[in-house]
Every structure is written in structure tokens, then in C-alpha cells.
């Protein structure tokens, strides 16, 4: 590590630089870990301060059901067509949830595997990702746009969580994976919310 012709001062400067670089990496890792939780906390605080208890309960129930296969889709579609949720608010909420989870995963996937309970869930999701890559050969072929379509498809085994992990398995950078998931989530929310809502308009007006 040290050169024989280096002076003590040069060695100290190099050691200080290495230690500083290590500290910066640790700080960067901590910031990446905290940002998704801070964003989620700010949204939760918004609901607490600016919405009534009924609205808070509706969105809390939506958040829980969203991660249950098929049930989540049913709640979203019925919630938009029956006017239980405002379509724009529902669209913004679901897109944010997907993007926030994706941000956590693309930044902290290796760390998340070491969290008790979460690690096993990540491993199962990685298994689902490998299965998806074997089933949908076009994922590798179309790269970024293939991942966008994969996240957009509204059926089990797709979506932001699996998409974030698949993107890293495909060798995409964190930024590229997040961009694909964000775009796919945007289109997925449009498909699940505004298409059923627009089709229901003639019946609502009758």
C-alpha cells in the first residue's frame, strides 16, 4: 500500500484521503438508505395534517391491498370507477408508492437482503425476477423499454418491486432502472385508473 520512497507526510495525506473517501461512501450509503423513508414519512405527514380520518383510512387500506395479487387491482379499478377515490389523487399516490419503493431497492438492494424478514422477501422476489426473465425473453432483447413494459403490465409477478430487481439483474445502473420503473409505473397507473374510469363515464351520467 505504501511506497518505500514516500515520506511520512505523504503517507499521512494518502491515509487521510482514503479515510475521507471511506467516510464519504458511508455517508452516501446512509443518505440513500434514509431518503425513501423520509419521502414516505413526508407523504404520511401530509395525510395526517391535511386530510380527515376517513380519507386516511381509505388510503391506508389501499396501500395494504395494493401488494396483494389481484385484490389490489380490484380495489384500484373499483375505487376509480365508483368514485371512491379521486382519479388524479389515486394516480399520484400509486405512482409515488411505486417510485419510492423502487428508489429504496435500486439504492439499497444488497443492504435490504441483510434486514431480518425483508431479506427472505427480497430473495423470493429475486427468484420471481429470474423466472420472469426466463419466461419473457424479450426483457433482455428490448432492454430499457422491455423493462418499462414489464413494469407496466398489470398482472402478478410484474410491477415496480420485481421490476427494480430485474433491472439490476439485467445489469442496468440504479438511475436507469429507476427511470424505467418510474415510466412503467406511470403507464401502469394510467391503465388501471383512467381507462376503467373513462369507460364508466357513460354509465355514471345515465
What do these coordinates show?
The chain is mainly α. 82% of the residues lie in helices and 0% in strands. The chain has eight helices and no strands. The protein has helices spanning 8-50, 53-66, 71-81, 87-112, 118-135, 138-152, 160-169, 174-205. Helix 2 packs antiparallel against helix 3, helix 3 (71-81) crosses helix 8 (174-205) and helix 5 (118-135) crosses helix 7 (160-169). The longest helix has 43 residues, at 8-50. The chain is globular, with a radius of gyration of 22 Å. 22% of the residues are buried.
Largest sheet: none
Q: Which structural category do the helix and sheet elements fall into? A: mainly alpha
Number of helices: 8
The rounded distance between the terminal residues' Cα atoms is 79 Å
Low-confidence stretches: none
Task: Describe the global form.
Answer: globular
Helix residue percentage: over 70%
Instruction: Report the strand count.
Output: 0
Oligomer: single chain
Give me the secondary-structure topology.
Layout (H helix, E strand, L loop, with lengths): L7 H43 L2 H14 L4 H11 L5 H26 L5 H18 L2 H15 L7 H10 L4 H32 L1
Helix pairs in contact: 1-4, 2-3, 3-8, 4-7, 4-8, 5-7, 6-7, 6-8, 7-8
Short overview:
This protein is mainly alpha-helical. Helix 4 packs across helix 7, helix 6 crosses helix 8 (174-205) and helix 7 packs antiparallel against helix 8. Helices cover 82% and strands 0% of the residues.
Keywords for this entry:
single chain, 206 residues, mainly alpha, globular
Amino acid at each position: 500500500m505504501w511506497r518505500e520512497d514516500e515520506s511520512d507526510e505523504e503517507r499521512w495525506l494518502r491515509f487521510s484521503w482514503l479515510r475521507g473517501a471511506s467516510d464519504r461512501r458511508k455517508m452516501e450509503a446512509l443518505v440513500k438508505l434514509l431518503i425513501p423513508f423520509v419521502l414516505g414519512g413526508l407523504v404520511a405527514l401530509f395525510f395526517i395534517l391535511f386530510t380527515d380520518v376517513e380519507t386516511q383510512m381509505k388510503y391506508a387500506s389501499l396501500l395494504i391491498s395494493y401488494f396483494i395479487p389481484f385484490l389490489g387491482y380490484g380495489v384500484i379499478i373499483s375505487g376509480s370507477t365508483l368514485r371512491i377515490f379521486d382519479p388524479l389523487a389515486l394516480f399520484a399516490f400509486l405512482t409515488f408508492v411505486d417510485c419510492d419503493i423502487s428508489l429504496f431497492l435500486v439504492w439499497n438492494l444488497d443492504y435490504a437482503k441483510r434486514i431480518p424478514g425483508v431479506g427472505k422477501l427480497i430473495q423470493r422476489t429475486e427468484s420471481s425476477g429470474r423466472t420472469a426473465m426466463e419466461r419473457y425473453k424479450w426483457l433482455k432483447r428490448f432492454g430499457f423499454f422491455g423493462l418499462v413494459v414489464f413494469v407496466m403490465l398489470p398482472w402478478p409477478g410484474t410491477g415496480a418491486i420485481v421490476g427494480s430487481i430485474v433491472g439490476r439483474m439485467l445489469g442496468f445502473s440504479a438511475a436507469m432502472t429507476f427511470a424505467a420503473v418510474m415510466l412503467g409505473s406511470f403507464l401502469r397507473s394510467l391503465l388501471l385508473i383512467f381507462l376503467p374510469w373513462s369507460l364508466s363515464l357513460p354509465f355514471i351520467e345515465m
